[in-house]
Amino acid sequence: MKAGFDHTEVIENIRARKDALGKELIILTHHYQRKEIVDLGDFVGDSFELSRKAASDSACRHIVFCGVHFMAESAAILAKPRQIVQIPNEHAGCWMASMADSVIVESAWNQISDVMGKERLVPVVYMNSDADLKAFCGTHGGTVCTSSNAQKAVRWAFEVGDKILFFPDQHLGRNVGHDLGLKADEMIVWSPDKPLGGNTPEAVRAAKMILWDGYCLVHTRFSVEQIEKMRSEFPGARIIVHPECTREVVAASDACGSTSYIVKYVQEAPAGSTIVIGTEINLINRLSLQYPEKKIMDLNNSLCPNMFKINLGNLLWILENLGDVNVVTVPDDIKADAKLALDRMLSLA
Ligand code: 13P
Ligand code: SF4
Fold first, then answer.
1. What distance in Å separates the CA atoms of residue 210 and residue 168, rounded to the nearest whole number?
2. Is the CB of 307 within 6 Å of ligand 2?
3. Same domain, 183 and 242
């Protein structure tokens, strides 16, 4: 919120709209939202918890999703047919989600299939992706995953198949592959602008995981040097990072997990703990206000400008135009196939 700007009236109007709508409305907020948005929401969570909430809340008619577009789209896929999902700012996209689309993923799929033998290739798509990529996974026997269940999803994919195409976040894929015991050379990177993703046919045949060359600009800003600096300044500190960080950063940290894992870690740490966090700054700032008896610091100030596009003004505007503006819809054919892959993820959890 800008200093010196009085939002009291906007907040009162939002609360009045909420009171008038009662159970007809639910406001879902992601952990990276500004504090004032989370305070006005009915539920805060990581991307997995928000999708589960959208799938299970059947009482409401209106779901207002304060997060980025792919999250609202997943809520629209999982919601009941009578429910309407709206996002306060339709330009709240995700850079990583735009690093893959169905044309280039399909081309990768065909190129990989052409050089493979009889083995079965399974697609695993990160939640941070457009609906048509989730649909691709639905029709090709794959699943969606989030940062909190990616290990389960990859383990499942290795039970039903032999090789995984993981997209779009190479870092989450690599971190999970590492935790499941894969060696670095069993995971190759697929660069979509190069023939065979920049690999030889032998390398593609030998790989267990093929990782799309995508990444999050917010989480790849953290470095091992920053961790070393924090360790020397605060020797007793615990360092926890999100799995969208690079393998080197995760290896240098003390713990790694989804946004909800980070929240729980801070919650459960004893009073007096010093915790340095490598994730989006709005979550870290909220945690440090929430737990004044613990010293909570950011590894580096890194803000997601997409999450930040949701504010009090556009939240009120949505509530004043319920059902009419920024309605998030997915074409029926894509919806059915994407739901297959999302339901598979929910059943794995
Ligand atoms: P979570 O799955 O932890 O909510 O993360 C989503 C995200 O976009 C992180 O950048
Ligand atoms: Fe996308 Fe990164 Fe923002 Fe998450 S933090 S929504 S991955 S740009």
1. 11
2. yes
3. no
Structural domains counted in the chain: 3
Extract the tokens encoding 160.
């039903």
Is the beta carbon of 157 within 6 A of some atom in ligand 2? Answer: no
- pLDDT, residue 4, reads 56
Is 187 part of any domain? yes
CA of 46 to the centre of ligand 1 (A): 6
Among all ligands shown, which has an atom nearest to the Cα of 92? 2
pLDDT for residue 254:
98
- Whole-structure pTM value: 0.96
Task: Provide the CATH number for the domain around residue 24.
Answer: 3.40.50.10800
Instruction: State both tokens at 218.
Output: 């917010």
Asked whether the bond before 192 is cis by omega within 30 degrees of 0, the reply is no
Nearest CA to ligand 2 atom 6: 94
Provide the pLDDT for residue 288.
98
Does 271 share its domain with 316? no
Nearest to residue 176, comparing CAs of 156, 200, 192? 156
48 CA from centroid of ligand 2 (Å) = 14
172 lines ligand 2 (CB under 6 A): no
Ligand 1 centre and the CA of 277: distance in Å? Answer: 14
| Ligand 2 centroid distance, CA of 220 (Å) | 11
User: What's the domain range around 20?
Assistant: 7-93+307-331
Per run of 10 residues, the mean pLDDT along the chain (length 349 residues) is 73 98 97 98 95 92 98 96 97 97 97 93 98 98 96 98 98 98 97 97 97 98 98 98 98 97 98 98 98 98 98 98 97 96 91
